[in-house]
Amino acid sequence: MDEIENNFRDVDFFSGIMDGLQEALAYEKGKAAAETFARKRSLPAVNVAEIRAELEMTQKAFAEVLGVSRRTVEAWENGKSTPTPTAKKLMFLIQEDHSLVNKL
After folding, report:
1. Tens-place pLDDT, residues 53-81
2. CA 3, 86, 61: angle at the middle one, nearest 5?
3. From CA 9, how far away is CA 17, in angstroms rounded?
4. pLDDT tens digits, 43-56
5. Among the residues of the chain, which ranges form H helices?
6. CA 23 to CA 66: how far, in whole Å?
7. Which end of the chain has fewer CB atoms surrounding its CB within 10 Å, N or C?
């Protein structure tokens, strides 16, 4: 629990909420378009085979970590399908910090 609290120690949630409410109010009054406050992040590019190789994991083991089937990992690596946005984000985080695999 301390680790979670430390992660959010310097986050000003009140300001974030107030900013969002002010943007919503501006939109309601016609002073802002919906696109003004829509926050979309681009998805990180991931190379599934490369990440799995860095972790020295089999397709089956990597699939278990991600909560998908081995065939899904195989399809991603062969380019037959693409990972979901959530899977891409998770793999990006794992690529940045390999220790996350032990927590999943």
Report:
1. 999 999 999 999 999 999 999 999 999 99
2. 80
3. 16
4. 778 999 999 999 99
5. 2-7, 13-28, 34-37, 48-54, 59-66, 70-78, 85-96, 100-103
6. 36
7. N
**Six token digits for residue 59:** 């397709």
Nearest C-alpha neighbor of 34 from the set 42, 24, 44: 24
Reported as half-sphere exposure (CB side, CA atoms, 13 A), residue 74 has a value of: 4
> Per-domain residue ranges for the chain?
2-37, 48-103
First and final CA of the chain: distance in angstroms? 17
**76-104: average pLDDT:** 92
Q: What is the pLDDT of residues 7-28, one digit of tens each?
A: 666 667 777 788 778 888 888 8
